[in-house]
Write a structure and sequence with these properties.
Layout lengths: L2 H58 L4 H20 L3 H16 L5 H11 L7
Helix pairs in contact: 1-2, 1-4, 2-3, 2-4
Length: 126
Amino acid sequence: MPTDVAKAIAKYRRKTLFVRLNKLLREKQEAHDSLTLRIRASEQAKVDFFEAKLRDLLDQQNLYADLRHQYMAYALALDKSQRTMRFMVDWIREHQILRDRFERRNLDASILDAIDQLVIYRTADA
């Protein structure tokens, strides 16, 4: 095969590589997007369930709507610290820091205790 023909064939293959792989790439992207959407939906369902439980607890406490976001922030921070901190000693220290920080905002300690009862699932004996 002459050199010019080999170069032309290589050039043609380089140009058409995307055309041939486009369908394959789209299928992979659609599968990835579908998986991502399923994971997002699952995680959002967990968040919604958590917030619904917390809303029910705050409804029982007869809180003003202006204060709810502070208690929600405490509960979400507490939940996140349990999920992200590996060692119990770190988590206990973080809980003490969070509790102190939110009590200094003049939040009711009895409501914070109720949130602790609802949210805390990591214990030293578990």
